[in-house]
Amino acid sequence: MRELKRLRRRANLTQEEMVEELTTFAQRLYAEGSISKPPTFTVRNLRKLENDEPPPWPHPATRTVLAAYWKCPVGDLGLRPAADEDGSAVLAPVPLASQVTAPVPLMVTAGASPLTDGALPPWLAETTTAINRSGEWRIAPEEVELLSDAADDHYAIDQQFGADRLWRPTRAHLLWTHHMIDRGIYDETLGQRLLSLAGKLTTSLGWFCYDAGLQAQARQYFSEALNAANYTGDDILASRTLSNMARQAVDLQKGREAVRFAKLGQMHAELWGAPSRVHALLAIREAQGHAKVGNVSDTELAIKRAWQKWEEGGHERDPDWALFLNLAELTCLEGMCRLDLAQTGRAQALLAESEAHQDVAHARNRGMCLVRLSVAAVANGDVDHSMSAARDALRLVESGMSSTRTAAQLKVVHDGMIPHHRARGVGDLLEQIRAHVA
How confident is the model at residue 161 (pLDDT cuts 50, 70, 90)? Predict the structure, then answer.
């Protein structure tokens, strides 16, 4: 029996009563601003969700309502997207502890809190359990803090080297966090920290999958993070996730979707009184969406708003995930907008300026800037500068940067260089690119 039907029956509700409950709940979420439009629930579509195999994948607003009403991700309700829009299969969401058969936890260190710096490695630790005499597994604040620090470490590694090798450990950390949420004993304060950590890990996992080229999985994790933000009222998480979703939508050639995500992110940013840097980030995300569909006037307005907000300066409340938006990065993002608008000369100048200001702590972002600069230069007929930027990007790849997004842009450079293959050095560069991105 599908989980939706089981929960409804456990609540002793008929399908008609369930539809009334969901409709009323949706109106409440709409009044609170959690959804932009209340979805329509009918007995017919509820019956399909409960009985069809596979069930239809609900509209985003419907998923938000269902997740918030039942207080769990929609994946736990038996709902899965069958495939992404390109037809590729979608991985199942991260399994929660309710789906894990092993007892908790399998191996910890006797005499020390599990998952702490003081714990012995598992091959040296005494096998025991983290369950007290009454059968309870009490979660220590230090465990949550350690996982949160690990999430921050992964974000820093992403900025330095790219995310191709980060999504697997982040998925494991998210699994363990859900394991603690579902099986552990903790007070309300620690419970809120666990839920916040789960949301932080989920949106990070979406970003890492996106950077690694796993677009279907990225969209799934972003959707789950947004669901979590909506039913916990975490507007900061919602702003971060919607910014990520807007960036991905641009790469998927979904400019209008990117604009919608960025504007919705701005609404959430207003709700938590976000500092200027966050508003600047969401404004430039909106500009990228407008540029992708060729809307020059709205792109200009959004770029102007982004710079106005950025020039208000940094703030002690700036979240970690917005700190990357320095002068070099905002200049680069404007250059990318100009490139999408086919303003190749202006794009090349901005991207060259950005590259000159990039720092070593953001090697992945510098690599992205270099390949965009190479694309802009060759489109502008400047083959020499295009080759120089591409070679610099390749040196970063050879030094350990691992970003599938960068590799994809190198393929664009390769294709743009083919008409110039007789020019001096171009043949060698094309061969070098193929060796790295084949």
Answer: low
Residue 5, pLDDT above cutoff 50: yes
- The answer on pLDDT for 290 being more than 90 is yes
Q: How far is CA 263 from CA 59, 155, 245, 342, in A?
A: 19, 25, 11, 24
Supply the DSSP string of 377-403, one letter for each residue: HHHTT-HHHHHHHHHHHHHHHHTT---
C-alpha separations of 119 from 143, 178, 185, 222 in Å: 11, 21, 21, 33
pLDDT digits (tens, 9 = 90+) for 235-278: 999 999 999 999 999 989 999 999 999 999 999 999 999 999 99
Q: What is the pTM of this model?
A: 0.65
Question: What pLDDT sits at residue 101?
Answer: 38
Strand partners, 83: 89
φ/ψ of 129, rounded to 5, equals -130, 160
Q: What is the DSSP string of 302-359?
A: HHHHHHHHHTT---TT--GGGTT--HHHHHHHHHHHHHHTT-HHHHHHHHHHHHHH--
Torsion angle of the four alpha carbons 307, 313, 316, 318, in this order, in degrees rounded to the nearest 10: 10
* pLDDT at residue 363 in the model: 64
Q: What distance in Å separates the CA atoms of residue 262 and residue 288, rounded to the nearest whole number? A: 10
DSSP state of 31: H
Instruction: Please provide the average confidence, as pLDDT, over all residues in the chain.
Output: 79
CA separation for the pair 247, 219 (Å, rounded): 11
- Please tell me the distance from the alpha carbon of residue 369 to that of residue 334, in angstroms, as a whole number: 11
**For helices 276-292 and 255-271, what crossing angle results, to 10°?**
160
Q: Position of tokens 């030094």?
A: 399
DSSP 176-223: HHHHHHHH-B--HHHHHHHHHHHHHHHHHHHHHHHHTT-HHHHHHHHH
